[in-house]
Amino acid sequence: MTEEETRKPARVVVADDQTVVREGIVMLLGLLPGIEVVGAAGDGREAVALVAELAPDVVLMDLRMPRCDGVEATRRIRAEHPGTQVVVLTTYADDESLFPALRAGARGYLTKDAGGDEIVRAVESVLSGDAGLSPSIQRRLLERLSEPAPSAVAPVEPPDGLTTRETEVLLLIAEGLTNQEIARRLHVSPATVKTHINNLFAKTGLKDRAQAVRYAFGKGLVRPPTG
């Protein structure tokens, strides 16, 4: 009997708030070698509870779910149950989904167009201590790592309760970038950029981009050009 034949199947919990999608993933996993589905959750809170009850090897985690989203559920699982690994399985591959999930402790990240073989490889990879990332996600990470940091960014604490991303948007406004250009630079949608701008304006009392530029200089986030 080979090692592959004697190896115990990976015990997996599936977390997805869409019933049809969740049941489809469970059905697919049931056909895959080396995987045993031991539970299914409709949101992040249920996923955390199932991990506490069942101690699975891996959770396949959707990100956008009610009550407790996938990022928070991942953070709690990794903090409270370090023996369980998390592989994100989501529709979204944008930076604002990918990087928070990885920072929360996810070791794998797949989009829902992944095939069965890709899911099996990701599960096996995270259980062996490697990262289980799809080729497209690996490329995205490499692109992000190779990008030069925005020239205006200063290593200071964001003022007035701004988040790191809102501060980054502010700095790009100070560079003179339009919403479309900021969206391309940050690999997010223009609607997301607009939301960040509305939030930072509300927190700081700013009313337009000109005031935002003066604010960035006044807070020492951007240095005046020299020479």
From TrEMBL:
Keywords: DNA-binding, Phosphoprotein, Transcription, Transcription regulation. The lineage of its organism: Bacteria, Bacillati, Actinomycetota, Actinomycetes, Kitasatosporales. Residues 155-220 form the HTH luxR-type domain. It comes from the Bacteria. Gene3D superfamilies: 3.40.50.2300. The modification 4-aspartylphosphate is found at D62. Residues 11-127 form the Response regulatory domain. One of its GO terms (biological process) is phosphorelay signal transduction system. SUPFAM superfamilies: C-terminal effector domain of the bipartite response regulators (SSF46894), CheY-like (SSF52172). It comes from Streptomyces mirabilis. InterPro entries: CheY-like_superfamily, NreC/VraR/RcsB-like_REC, Sig_transdc_resp-reg_C-effctor, Sig_transdc_resp-reg_receiver, Tscrpt_reg_LuxR_C, WalR-like. GO terms for molecular function: DNA binding. This is Two component transcriptional regulator, LuxR family. It holds the Pfam family Response_reg.
